[in-house]
Design a protein that fits this description.
6 helices, alpha+beta, rod-shaped, 2 domains, 226 residues, single chain, 4-stranded antiparallel beta sheet, 5-stranded antiparallel beta sheet
Length: 226
């Protein structure tokens, strides 16, 4: 959160409280004019601090609830009919210093990436708890339902190695997180594959969003995918 949304109203409230107390002291001490003036000024500063704090909370709400961050870049290269090599690049984690790059052979007309999502309650989101995710699977997807049923399929596990701590599962099973958790669910995004296509996958506060990032990717999807 931006610090001045809280420092400024706090300073205004502190100054207002001091002036208000001095004003009240003047009133009880018989200095009616000075006491009334101090009380009015102090009360005004306290009210101004409250207004600024509420405005700051509203602004922070807007910023947090529209926050997005990139979770993956996917580049596709055609190897044959309905067969592509998909290069998946993910940002470095806290334990890594460089992006992770992996390549997969994907059958189909489209790629699909799925993730496990942990969405917090709005009040927790405002306090800075953003939607958490863990990439789960990368798979191929066919345009035709008949192909989906009969053509070669490809699916890859993107989750952590067995034995690692899974916060999604812990939050799902533990009542400790219940007051803050809004929903635990799976989400996905897919795009048509193109030779030389480049795509970005972003996490928003409501789920995954995929975007074509170069002419090849845009042309593969037509106007409906812009």
């Amino acid at each position: 959160m931006v610090w001045w949304w809280w420092i400024l109203p706090a300073a205004s409230a502190l100054l207002g409280a001091i002036v208000l107390l001095r004003g009240l002291g003047g009133l009880f001490g018989g200095r009616f004019i000075g006491g009334l003036f101090g009380t009015a000024v102090g009360g005004g500063l306290l009210a101004a601090g409250a207004v600024v704090a509420l405005a700051g909370l509203d602004v922070q709400t807007y910023q947090r609830l529209t926050y997005e961050r990139p979770v993956a870049t996917i580049e596709t290269r055609q190897l044959g009919p309905q067969l592509f090599e998909a290069t998946l690049t993910t940002p470095p984690t806290a334990a890594e210093t460089a992006p992770a790059v992996k390549r997969y052979q994907v059958h189909g007309d489209q790629w699909r990436v799925e993730a496990r999502l942990l969405k917090w309650k709005p009040w927790a989101n405002v306090l800075g708890l953003d939607t958490q995710y863990r990439l789960d699977r990368l798979s191929g997807r066919y345009e035709s339902t008949a192909d989906e049923l009969n053509a070669p399929r490809s699916v890859y596990d993107l989750g952590p190695e067995p034995g690692n701590i899974d916060m999604w599962t812990m939050a799902r099973k533990s009542k400790r997180y219940a007051p803050m958790v809004d929903s635990l669910y799976g989400g996905g995004a897919f795009m048509p594959m193109a030779n030389g296509g480049r795509y970005e996958v972003w996490l928003t506060q409501t789920g995954l969003v995929a975007r074509p990032m170069n002419p090849a990717a845009l042309e593969a999807g037509g106007e409906g995918w812009h």
